[in-house]
Amino acid sequence: MSIRVGILGYGNLGRGVEASIAQNPDMELKAVFTRRNPETLKIETQSAKVLHIDEAKNMTNDIDVLIICGGSATDLPEQTPEFVSMFNVIDSFDTHANIPTHFANVDKAAKEAGKIGIISCGWDPGMFSLNRLYAGCILPQGTDYTFWGRGVSQGHSDAVRRIEGVLDARQYTIPVEAALEAVRAGENPELTTRQKHTREVFVVAAEGADTAKIEKEIKEMPNYFSDYDTTIHFIDAETMKKEHAGLPHGGFVIRTGETKNGNKHLIEYRLQLDSNPEFTGSVLVAYARAAYKMAQEGMSGAKTVFDVAPAYLSALSGEELRAHML
Amino acid sequence: MSIRVGILGYGNLGRGVEASIAQNPDMELKAVFTRRNPETLKIETQSAKVLHIDEAKNMTNDIDVLIICGGSATDLPEQTPEFVSMFNVIDSFDTHANIPTHFANVDKAAKEAGKIGIISCGWDPGMFSLNRLYAGCILPQGTDYTFWGRGVSQGHSDAVRRIEGVLDARQYTIPVEAALEAVRAGENPELTTRQKHTREVFVVAAEGADTAKIEKEIKEMPNYFSDYDTTIHFIDAETMKKEHAGLPHGGFVIRTGETKNGNKHLIEYRLQLDSNPEFTGSVLVAYARAAYKMAQEGMSGAKTVFDVAPAYLSALSGEELRAHML
Q1: pTM of structure
Q2: 3-state SS, residue A74
Q3: pLDDT, tens only, A148-165
Q4: Do A125 and B96 touch (CB under 8 A)?
Q5: Share of residues in chain A with pLDDT > 70 (%)
Q6: Which end of chain A is least crowded, N or C, by CB within 10 Å?
């Protein structure tokens, strides 16, 4: 019998989750829940229902795990505690500073309901966090470095779009190669924000817009750009559509450390992703399997990737994993 | 209170474990057990005892976890089941084909004794296995590649040392850069043994030895060298000592996969280690902490890295991990 999955929210991430479910023969998409009018939503999975979010409460016997694909700013802090009272859930909550509060809220609701709620899944937080944890435990005397990119930052793209005269924008975060090389060489460099990443922005400006003014506003924007070396390109809408439609991303988690006699060790984890939402969706689906298996064993409460034994992610048995993957 | 650790076997790996314990303030080395005369053994940790292996059974109340540092061929199949009847244990059993049998033997003894036995820890099997598992679960439609090196293979070095006229030898396994690049480029190459790795051998020959004959014997040695392109250098004993005293190693686990619309993703995990035994020892120590914590919670039986939730490896609490590492 398949693991029956629901998706809450059908944006880029929800579609990425749907694509991943289709690649996992032990999982089945039962329903997509939306705040929109369900009749306006076309999904790819013929066999799944499209339902209004208010109908989720009637589907608790039909869904084993609900993957919540909302945003971290306003959706997930409300939705994850609410829906974990009815379902085993997964989310990708990524506002680092608020993770402890979110965890506590989800944990309380999950334990009351006897459900599992795995929060902050994806690649950062998620796979990058795992790699920081493993590497830090193995090499306690060492230094961590995380680099992001080359990839599209949606938050930075949105910030540029809010500037007067900007019709569309796409922002790429790019790790500085020289910094990466210094880290890999075991030099333990102390790197400023500017030394770690550069930013590259592609802008479609309105006709007659003051591009010099737009450029200045971008480069001086506090938090988003003022601490970085930023390159700006003005392009037309067609070029934007043709060359910047994707949402690639990735990055590097590197730890260098010493054991004794100056013996140095490097642990590097690298992701290079053509589609950030499709990869993140794939991580969520693997953890949905884990949530299902953990719930089957009677566990409940909020969990993060740190709390999930790797074997739970796999459709293979312990015997199969030991024989073929160890 | 510290986690009290014992080491069984004091070769390269045992010394690597000792060095790692010294880097972890929550752990304390209590005793090293040896088959040799304990009085002949000098260890680095002043506060720890050196005892004959037969005295281990009298130390069950003084040691929380025993790290077994024997060889996979003959030591571990005997020692791990024997000592898990008295202690929580960790080993680095690495004969892949025999892991299921070893697991079953350790599991039986561990469950009878109510102890934890984590087997096959290190980096391969170990961290590489973990990365194959995580990557395979996230990208079910993809291909795995594992490359080893540049590093010293002790088995291959030993094989060369057994050739007549060879006084000393050191063998390096080297990944083929072009193969790595083809994998990273997402070309999904089908690689033969010869296309993945080359071998480089440094040999100290006896005076008057037939070096041409030695070279031929190495290159034609079945299993070890005949399927590889091998380069051989004859050097003097002093150069061997000066330039090849270390035991560096490392390698790459790479998975490339697709989600939909041809979107490709790359996950790469890389280790570059100055000292294979010191790094392996560091992994064993992190899993010793996990064994202790899991036993404290009442778990028992044989485990592998697949069965250990990452948080168990850390000295930090769940709250601290979520606040700082996620």
Answers
A1: 0.97
A2: coil
A3: 999 999 999 999 999 999
A4: no
A5: 100
A6: N
